[in-house]
Amino acid sequence: MLITVTRSGGFTGVEKTRGIDTSQRRDARELEQLARRAVPSAADSFHYRIAVDDQVFDLEGPTLTEEQRELVRTVLGEGA
Q1: What is the structure's pLDDT at 26?
Q2: What is the model's pTM?
Q3: CA distances (Å), 15 to each of 9, 18, 23, 56, in order?
């Protein structure tokens, strides 16, 4: 399994991406289980891209905060 994580933002705006291939790791089973638990399954949920001036945010339906839900409902004019 290939697991890749990208971190961006912060004060300096530096992006860091690193991936690992679990096939040759002694802790492969644990890492793969961790990855499956850490990444929510949202195949049938809505995906949202919210742009506020020049900032863009990509969000998944199940992880929206109440404030994000309210913003989506207000802007789209429908439930979120």
Answers
A1: 96
A2: 0.55
A3: 7, 10, 26, 16
